[in-house]
Amino acid sequence: MTFEEYTASRSPALLRYAAVLTGDRDLAQDIVQEVLARAHQRWHRIARLDVPDSYVRRMVTNEFLSWRRGRWSRLVPVGRVTEEQCPVRMAERPDAPTTHAERDALLTELARLPRRQQAVLVLRYYEGLSDGEIADVLGCRPGTVRGYAARALARLRVELDPVDLHRKDATLVAKDL
Amino acid sequence: MRTEEDLRSLFAAREDLAPDQHQVLEGARQAVARRRRRRSAGAAAAAAAVVAVALPVTVRGLSAAPGADATPPEASVPVAGATSSTPAARVPSGPRPPFAFTILPGSAAGYEIRPMAVNPDLQIAAIRGRGKARIELLVYRPGAESRAMNGWDVTEDPVRVAVDRTPALYSARDGASAIRWEYAPGGWAVISATSSPVVPKETLIALAEAVRFSAPYPAKVPYRLSYLPAGFKPFHFTWGAEGAGAPRPVVQFEDGAGHQGVMDIAIHDGAAGSRPEWRADRTMAGRPADCTDLVDGRRCAVDFGSFTVDVGTGGLTDAVLERVVAGMRFADWDDPATWYDLDTAMPGR
Questions:
Q1: In Å, how far are A125, B144, B199, B201 from B161, measured between CA atoms?
Q2: Distance (Å, rounded) from C-alpha A129 to C-alpha A137?
Q3: In angstroms, how far is CA A89 from the centroid of its own chain?
Q4: pLDDT surpassing 50 at residue B281
């Protein structure tokens, strides 16, 4: 797969992933731009991987995790989308005002989580990855991923689905063994 | 109580924030072109170079020479070295040392010209005005004209114009505009701008005509190195800044095989502070260090209190990084007069 083929076929999904991960259109744009520019430089190596897309997504995740103030100013933005061109348009959704307010609160609390915890939630609930797969992306152990997720969910006051509770119990049992 | 479904729904809604694909790919294409251009000019360092042109920096203490058309900036750059006895000139007076500037800072046509980055083949200056236009001046070493031509981003339908009665080319496309002229025999300069609306041709010509040169003044760093891995040498210097007035000198290194970007050293103003996801679990050279692993390498920020050494590498081990940091001897961070010329700050110089 050439770089051009990759960007043509995969960049929409990559952009959606970056948007979900960051919750910020400008930052998502900067991150993907930077990652694609870097991926282009080493595409001959990335293309040899079994799943180049996983590697590029990992680059996006790492770029997000390594963000710090000032770093993004090195990027060259190519124009900004104005607010009215579509932030998350909660108001247009058929939700009751209460739901809107609640989702807003959840967004705010999510943004306050450490970025690694945010990434774990996105990888689990948006990408649908298992803890083991998330661990591969983040370069840590599955147990660490579960720890991040547990802390994040507790802070957000998210109740686990029964199936997850079962999984959690199983994990605890396995750990106890 | 919230549910996991709420999270799934929230994340799904965030897809609406996905940026425009065409815009991002165009941005990536431009970034690749810039990197290729700078690499081909011996610079390569897109990241640092863009820091150079992207950040508002208060330049300290570089006094313009008498007779300069350009007004000197209020504050000063530690890279300063231009002396008041040096006349400003439309053309550099002679060869330039590899890590020395000759672009004279100053203001013209409502813009401020701030020399920001340098390597043996290229000097870069940020040009900033009141608006949001992002303008950069690139001055290529004489003899590097083909590289300058390669770096010409807006080649379609160039219009012939004149800069100080010297033939020049102006071009504009998609919010980008540029002017290129031969400032000295075999030496090309480019001023490129990205803004909406496009920077007028007359403004670019006025800026080009305002560019002045001084005697070479060296890039300065607040440290000397007593150790570098074998074959490593600097290839690009950026005088960046994290914020207004805060210096952030960045040096990028290449190895003996010419692989650029194998290591970089940046100095930040102030303590490292807490950075999410950086693990503050080690020391380097006896100082607290935060490190993180990126896909393309490792970065460590070593906290020296009033400043932070930020060192990154594509493949060196922690032990080598620590040896580099341990071998650093520092000038007075707050007194740029004590800083070292980059050329002499390297081991064995």
A1: 57, 22, 15, 9
A2: 10
A3: 20
A4: yes
Of the residues A76, A81, A106, A140, the best mutation for testing chain B's interface (the one with the most B CB atoms within 10 Å of its CB) is A76
B32: nearest CA partner in chain A: A37
Boundaries of every domain in chain B? 39-218, 220-344
CA B233 to chain centre: 18
Summarize pLDDT for B232-270 with one digit per residue, the tens. Answer: 999 888 886 534 456 678 898 888 887 766 788 988 877
Contact (CB<8Å) B21/A161: no
In the chain, the amino acid numbered A52 is P
What Cα–Cα distance (Å) separates residue B187 from each residue in A34, B87, B158, B238?
31, 20, 19, 21
Which residue in A146, A160, A55, B11 sits closest to A134, CA to CA? A146
> CATH 1.10.1740 in chain A, residues?
1-68
Whether the CB of B7 is below 8 Å from some CB of chain A: the reply is: yes
Query: Which of A85, A160, A8 has its CA nearest to residue B5?
Result: A160
Residue B54 forms contact with A (CB below 8 Å): yes
pLDDT of residue B275: 58
Contact B299 A66 (CB under 8 A): yes
The CATH label, of 3.10.129.10, 3.40.190.10, 1.10.443.10, 3.30.200.100, for the domain at B220-344 is: 3.30.200.100
Query: Residue A59: which of B30, B275, B295 has the nearest Cβ?
Result: B295
CATH number of A97-177: 1.10.10.10
Given this model, what pLDDT does residue B83 score?
38
B14 reaches A (C-beta below 8 A): yes
Q: What is the DSSP letter of B89?
A: B
Task: Decide if A66 and B4 are in contact by the 8 Å CB cutoff.
Answer: no
**Cβ atoms of A167 and A153 closer than 8 Å:** no
Q: In percent, how much of chain B has pLDDT > 90?
A: 18
Are the beta carbons of B215 and B89 closer than 8 angstroms?
A: no
Which residue has 């963000």 as its token pair? A67
pLDDT at A55 over 80: yes
The CA distance from A150 to A158, in Å, is: 10
CA pair distance B134, B124, nearest whole angstrom: 13
| CATH number, domain A1-68 | 1.10.1740
pTM value surpassing 0.90: no
Domain(s) of CATH 1.10.10.10: residues in chain A: 97-177
B17, A23: Cβ pair inside 8 Å?
yes
